[in-house]
Each structure stands twice: as C-alpha cells, then as structure tokens.
Write a structure and sequence with these properties.
The complex is a heterodimer.
Chain A lengths: L6 E10 L8 E11 L4 E6 L5 H8 L7 E6 L2 E2 L9 E4 L11 H11 L4 H14 L15 H13 L5 E5 L7 H16 L3 E5 L3 H7 L2 E6 L2 E7 H4 L4 E9 L7 H6 L2 E5 L2 E6 L2 H13 L3 E9 L2 H10 L18 H7 L1
Parallel strand pairs in A: 3-8, 3-9, 6-7, 7-8
Antiparallel strand pairs in A: 1-2, 1-4, 4-5, 9-10, 11-13, 11-14, 12-13
Helix pairs in contact in A: 2-3
Chain B lengths: L1 H14 L2 H23 L4 H25 L2 H7 L2 H6 L5 H33 L6 H25 L4 H14 L3 H14 L1 H13 L9 H10 L7 H28 L3
Helix pairs in contact in B: 1-6, 2-3, 2-6, 3-6, 3-7, 3-11, 6-7, 6-12, 7-8, 7-11, 7-12, 9-10
The chains are: A alpha/beta, B mainly alpha.
C-alpha cells in the first residue's frame, strides 16, 4: 500500500461573508492535515469548529479562500479527485420520488459505473444494508435510519478507496449506530480509508485509529488515540472495609470526597500520590483495602480539555503536535 | 453519461409531479373549448380554434418551464440533494446542463402532447393543417428553449418566488420588444437618456416576438392556404434562439460555478 496521504491539506483557509453589514467569519484557519491510507480517522470539534467546512472543501461543495487540498494526490478543485472518494453527508437527502433501486442506479451512473457492475453492486448493497424489503418504496417513506444506510450505500457503491462521512451516527438509535460502526470497521478491514466527523466520542474512541481535534477553525490536536490518551489518571477511587463509623479528618483533608457505603468506606482523590497516602491512612486506621480504581482520561475528557482551553493543549503527545494559532487568527476571532 | 443521467432524473421528477399533469389537462381543456368560443365569435370557427389552440400551447408550455424550472436548482440546494451529486465526479456545468436538458425534455413532452391533441382536434373539426401551423409550433419550442434557460438562470441565483417573477416578466415582456424599440426611438428627442435606457433594455431582453408567427398560422388556416414562413427566416430565428439560450446558460454557469454549498 502506498504511504502517500489519502487526504492532504496545506494551510487551508475558509472565510464566510454572511451579509453586507455583518463581519466575516473564519471557518478554517490554515489547516494542515494528513490522513494516512487504511486508517479510520476521526474528525472532532464542537459545533462551528470547521468540520463540515473541511469536508465540503474536500468533496468539492465549497472553495477554500486560500491553501490547497488533495485527495490521493489530486487537487480537490479537479473533479477527478472525486472518482476515488465516496461521500455521505450529515442526514443524507435523496429524491423523494425515487426508490432505493433507482437512487443507487442514479448514483452509479454519476460515478461512471458500467450498467451491469452498478446493478450487481446495488443489489449486493441493498441486501447488505437490510433494505431489500423496501427497495421499491419511494424515499419519502424511508425512516431516518434507512436513509442513513442508503446514504452509506451510495457512498461506497463504486468501491472508493476513501469514504468521507459527515456525522454518520447523528440522530441514530443505538442499534443504528452499531450498524454504522460495524460498516466502518469492515471498510477499514477491506483497506478503505474512512474519514468521518462525529460528536459521539465514545464511538470515535472505540473505532478510530487517529483523530484530529478542531477548535474555532484551528487544529488543536492530532495523532493516534493511543498517543493522545497517555493514560493520565484523573481520579482514584479507593474502598476499604473495617473502618469505624464516623469521619477520618486526615483523609477528608486530602480527598475530594469520602463517605460510608454500607460496610465499605469509599474515598475519591484526584491523583495517584494522594491515593497512596489515603491507602496508608486507611490501613493505619485498621481498614482493609478492597479496591483502588484509577479513572483514566477518556477521549471525551481529552476533547473537553483541549477545546475548552486552546492555549493549553498539553495533552498532546509526541505524535500529537499542537498547531500554534497564528497571530492574525487571534485578531480575527477577537 | 453524467449529463443524460441528471437530465433523465430531472424528467422523471417532473413526470412524477402532479403539476405537469394539471398543466396538460388545462391546456387540453382550453384547446377543447376553443371550438365553442369559435361558434360564438366573429371571424370563423377554424380561425378562433387555431388562434386559441396555439396560444394555449405557448402559454402552458411556458408555464411548465416557469413553474417547474424556477425552483429547480434552489430545491436541490435547499433539500441538500446536490451534496451527494456534486460529490461525485460531476462538473458543475454538467449538473446545470443536465437540469436544463431534463426540464427542456419535460417542456417538449408537454408541447408534443398538447400539439398532437390540437392537430387531431383541428383535423376532426375539418380545419386545414397548414405548414405555417407546424412552423408556429416549432418556433414555440425554440422560444421554450430560451425561456427554460432563463428559468434555470434565475433558479441558480435566486429563490423560487423571485425566479418565477423574473422569468414571467421576461416571458411576457419579451413579446413586447418590438414596441420597446419604437418607444425608445420616440423618446430620443424628448428624453434622450430615457430613450437610451429603453434601447439598452431592448438589447438585453430576448426578442421573443421573433418566435411569434401564430398570427401568420391563423391567417393560413383562415384562408385555407398552404403558405409557409420562408426557410431563411425560420433558420435565423432558430439560430437567434439557440445563441441566446447558450448565452443565458453560460451566465447561469458563471454564477453557479462560484457558489459554495
């Protein structure tokens, strides 16, 4: 497999002009991005962070004001770049009067597929996504989950080596989310690169190899999840038995919280050092330690930390370089 | 393959929409009642039938272009169906060309159905089917090519209501360009600036009057003569219509190609 990035952007910048008398809004600020082949790449950020803007530039729906982007080495302004990608927008919409068969036939033609190939593939996908019972039903009668599945089917119809999805799990029930997750994982297993934005960080943490976090149009962290989440311990919960009723003042002084829970005495502290101190104190008080549970930082907590304080994205590991905001970007935001 | 795929899909959308059938039914009704109007009018039954029939075909074909065409691009953006189309290896001009050709095919089908009914009705009523009549129907189609392009142009830049207003204004005012140029000439002495503006308007507006040979067709029917509009005139009108259409579509492309979705 080639090591050439599947998606590459260089100093990509987007500015919106909402109206004559309104100030321009910066959508993206000098974004540099490289998505390696064969990975599941999560693209994270709060609402308005620039995720959808980036995706729209990559698939040719918007034009960046400056900078450049490539799909498999082809400039995104060239329509040939879209031969190698499949795109599923957020809440995909289709022509209400078409059936699933007609919809896939239409997108197959647009993708340049031969008649036999597109019919065979459409049939295969309709069965894979459990839409066989509704294949002759017009889109207007489809549920959100069914549309989402068809959206994914049209995106991978021509077997593209890259699939870009904008919030693919948005608004789906747990089963629907599980189905999409499984499809993403199977695509990766077949060698397809999957690039998707999401707010559902639990899913991202479960399936992504790499993530990029955007904040106010700027990249604040990027890298392998394992490198970003360094195992930093946020809290430790201790439980001990044999502690007499009443408080232990020395424990209370350093604990975030301490309380009796039936026969157990539970203590919550905010570091491993304090946990060791509390452990000694409890043993000294005649207790027996039953458990010590460290609570490590999750992707969600990491995300909150780096996006709520962009000036201190210290969770970045060696693989997660932090892009320092250019001075003019700060001025624009101000 | 992309342009025909989008065109056929656009045609399919129109065919599955009730408005097309409503317009065809009203067109047929208007042609059908023309005989009754002919009975109570001065000037001959066949003349009135031809006059009303040709006008009905022109008007209802124009209405198909305006009602379906002016919301076409806007709806694609508003309903976000354009997202999955432009994300395929389709150029924007291909999308626009496909939408235009699909709408034109819809207008053509409407025109052919109404014309077939009209000619059959005239024949059943014993009215002569003249060459001028066929020429008038052909030039109506050329006019619709242009009006459809105007509808697509406004639809690619504006809301459906504004597009419908602008296209309707052009559809009717384009018939008056002959008088606009006369008005400009008469204002040359009294208000030269107004005269220049009116003349500029004349140059910008499509001269739809060129395509209106309905009067000649009616006269041919009335006098039962196989007179025809000279071929040279027909070719000139067609070239004018095609050239103007291409210019409007190019302008639509220039606007559409710059847009962010």
């Amino acid at each position: 497999m080639s090591s050439q990035p599947v998606i590459k952007t260089e100093k990509l910048r987007m500015v919106y002009h909402p109206g004559l008398f309104e100030r321009a809004k910066v959508g993206l600020e000098e974004l540099d991005l490289e998505v390696p082949p064969g990975s599941i790449y999560g693209y994270l950020g709060q609402n308005g962070a620039g995720k959808t803007t980036t995706i729209k530039i990559l698939v040719g729906l918007q034009y960046a004001v400056s900078g450049q982007a490539w799909i498999m080495g082809t400039d995104v302004r060239n329509s040939a770049s879209r031969r190698t990608l499949g795109f599923m927008p957020e809440n995909p919409y289709f022509y209400e009067y078409l059936t699933a068969d007609e919809t896939l036939e239409f997108y197959g033609k647009l993708s340049g597929m031969e008649r036999q190939a597109r019919r065979k593939r459409a049939d295969e996908l309709i069965h894979t996504f459990g839409l066989a019972h509704a294949r002759h039903m017009p889109m207007r009668d489809y549920s959100k989950g069914m549309r989402q599945r068809l959206g994914l089917a049209q995106a991978i119809l021509h077997n593209p080596p890259l699939v870009i999805m904008d919030e693919p799990m948005s608004g789906l029930d747990p089963l629907g989310r599980r189905d999409i997750r499984n499809v993403i994982l199977s695509l990766r297993d077949q060698g397809t690169t999957v690039f998707f934005s999401s707010h559902i960080l639990g899913d991202v943490e479960a399936i992504c190899d790499r993530v990029c976090v955007l904040n106010l149009g700027k990249k604040v962290a990027e890298g392998r999840i394992s490198a970003l989440l360094t195992g930093r311990v946020l809290e430790v919960e201790l439980s001990a038995s044999g502690i007499p009723a009443g408080d232990l003042p020395e424990v209370k002084n350093i604990a975030q919280r301490a309380w009796h829970d039936g026969a157990l005495y539970r203590v919550l502290v905010d570091s491993e050092e304090k946990a060791q101190q509390v452990k000694s104190m409890l043993e000294k008080a005649g207790g027996t330690i039953r458990s010590m549970l460290p609570h490590k930082e999750s992707l969600e907590e990491y995300f909150v930390r780096v996006t709520s304080d962009p000036a201190r994205p210290d969770g970045a590991a060696e693989e997660a370089p932090v892009i320092k905001a250019p001075a003019h970007a700060e001025e624009t935001r101000a | 393959m992309i342009v025909p795929a989008i065109a056929l899909n656009t045609f399919r959308e129109a065919v599955r929409d009730k408005i097309l059938y409503v317009l065809i039914v009203f067109g047929v009704l208007m042609i059908a009642v023309s005989r009754a109007i002919g009975w109570v009018s001065f000037g001959g039954e066949h003349k009135i039938m031809t006059d009303i029939g040709l006008t009905a075909i022109w008007m209802f074909s124009g209405m198909v272009s305006i009602f379906i065409g002016t919301g076409m691009i806007y709806k694609e953006v508003d309903k976000r169906t354009i997202y999955t189309i432009l994300a395929k290896p389709a150029e924007r001009w291909q999308f626009l060309a496909g939408k235009y050709l699909g709408l034109l095919l819809t207008t053509l089908v409407n025109l052919v159905i109404l014309s077939a009914f009209f000619i059959a009705y005239l024949w059943l009523c014993g009215a002569p089917i003249t060459l001028a009549l066929i020429q008038a129907l052909f030039l109506t189609f050329v006019e619709m090519m242009l009006i459809t392009a105007v509808a697509i142009f406004f639809s690619s830049a504006s809301t459906p209501i504004l597009s419908a207003i602008f296209t309707t204004v052009i559809f009717f005012s384009g018939q008056l360009t002959k008088w606009v140029v006369e008005l400009g000439a008469s204002l040359k002495q009294t208000a030269p600036w107004v005269g220049k503006v009116v003349y500029a308007l004349y140059l910008m507006l499509p001269n739809l009057h060129n395509f209106n040979i309905r009067r000649e067709a009616v006269l041919a029917t009335q006098s039962n003569l196989q007179i025809a509009i000279p071929a040279r005139e027909m070719i000139d009108c067609t070239i004018y219509g095609v050239a103007y259409t291409l210019a409007v579509l190019l302008a639509a492309h220039l606007i559409f190609n710059r847009r962010n979705f």
